Structure formats: structure tokens, C-alpha cells
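Example record used in the benchmark description.
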Amino acid sequence: MQYSKRVLQIFQNPVNYGKIKSPDGIGKAGNIVCGDVMAIYIKVKKDKKNQDIISDIKFETFGCVAAIATSSIMTSLAKGKTLQSALKIGKQNIVKNLNGLPPTKVHCSLLSTDALFEAIFDYYSRHDQDKITKDMIKRHTDIEKDQAEIKKRYKNWVDNEEKKLNKHSK
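Model output (C-alpha cells):
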């Protein structure tokens, strides 16, 4: 498997890594086949047009080179965008910004967009439920099913991570 120089550079020097104290939204996504798990934390502020924008975004990823690189790129692409614009970031945007990914690793880009989606969904659930559409509920439900399977398979690790997350969220 060959990674682009860009993927390796970002993997070695990821940006936006870590947690946000008291985040406005938290999103988690994982892949039951490869075991990669991502958490995305967002802070949301109003811009001059009174639109919700991602003012800060951080990630934590337990996974491979591609999972970490896609998380880092996704956070860079989303930072400063309105929530609606951030929801439009697709795996193609991420793969392009990484100068490609091996075909067996493209799923990592989808995983990072799912984690971002979940963070935005979490924000809307807490602050603006009217913005949640039927399509968003369906996607959220599908992601939750995957998360339940990961939690079942990796129970001890997930429990420890959730304890850490809850400790930092308070």
C-alpha cells in the first residue's frame, strides 16, 4: 500500500488534534471492519450574518495512517465554515486534499465526514432541533448502528474513552 507524500506529512504532523473543553457538539464514528474510531469536537459561534459557524474543531482518532490524515484534513476543511457548508464536505474533498488515498483506505474519509456529521447533529440536537431533517435522522441512525457494533466488539476500550470524554466534557 502506497500513501501519497501529503498523507504521510499530515499523519506525521496532524493539525487540530485533541479535545475542546466544553464542546458545543461531539461526534463519534467508527468502522466495524477495520476498528478505526474517531471523535470530533466542535465549538460553534455566530458570524456577522448570524449564521452558525465552526469556530474551533478538534479530533481524536484511534486508527491507521489514513484515518488520522483524513481526520486532520477534514477538520481543516470544516473550520470557519457554516454548519450547512461543513455538512457538504464529502469524501471526495478529503481524498483530493490528500492527493489521493489507496482504494482500501478511502473508507477513512467517509468515517471522518460521518464524525463531523455527528458533531453537527449533536449541536442541532442541543441548540436548534428545527434544523434536523428526516435525511439527517436516517444518517444519524445508520451511524449509531455502526457505533453500537463497535462498542460491543471493543467494549473495554470504548468504556475507557467515554469515561475520559465525560470527564473532559464537564
